[in-house]
Amino acid sequence: MLYIRFFLEDIDDYCYLCEFKKLVLEPAVRGTMNVMNVAVEVKVPRVVFTSTMAVTYMDPNRNPDKVVDETCWSDFNYVRNIQDWYCYGKILAENTAWEVARKRRVDLVTVIPPLTIGPLLQPNVNASIVHILKFLNGRNKTYGNAVQGYVHVKDLALAHILVYENHRRRAGTFASKACVTDMRLCSDEVNPRVKPYKFSNKRLKDLGLTLTPVKQALYDTVISLQQNGHLIVFPQSNTSPNVSDCQSWPSKPALAIGSSRISPRL
């Protein structure tokens, strides 16, 4: 089995990967194939496939000066060797969609978002929002030495509409205005900062998409977490914070939610 041959030395990892393959990889590929085949049968004029930024940038041999856009793919063998099974599954799923599209002549277009944040549609916290929540509730004690891209969920929804209505192919949306990072905080002598890739979302902007600033997207996320009971709202606060308060939250404990863990540079 291709999926488990790297884990034979450790039974725990072996069992984990077998379970991951069963619960994630197989449903992703089989589900993608089923949806594409049904689209052919009912004569859907165009299929919009939600991919992920992870399928584009993970290639250690890529020139760091290259601009990463919707034409780029992560190195499949590299992703498999480092055992990034999330990315591995996403690559398999999108490749499955394109394979069916070519064989059955489906009009397919993909949207490639980074981490999606913003107001919750459901009362429960999903995997993307957990990424934000764990910095606010104390679960994460440190910031990773990395760059993180975000997109507002409303922008992502609009991107799907735009590419459906326009004759584009593999369209990409890579960040909500900017990536959140602080080079001074995310570098050290032992692990010097590697030059990050530049990402382009020009094709979506050309279709008329205006991206929400990261600060607004993060603010909307926090407010939604409060409204759904996932973050405590301090009772001594008589007013709700505005997005402009994000810059000064650490100095306003009455408005701060996990204020000691929110960077003032947001």
Automatic annotation (TrEMBL):
Keywords: Oxidoreductase. Gene3D superfamilies: NAD(P)-binding Rossmann-like Domain (3.40.50.720). Residues 26-169 form the NAD-dependent epimerase/dehydratase domain. The keyword Oxidoreductase applies. GO terms for molecular function: oxidoreductase activity, acting on the CH-OH group of donors, NAD or NADP as acceptor. This is NAD-dependent epimerase/dehydratase domain-containing protein. It comes from Protea cynaroides.
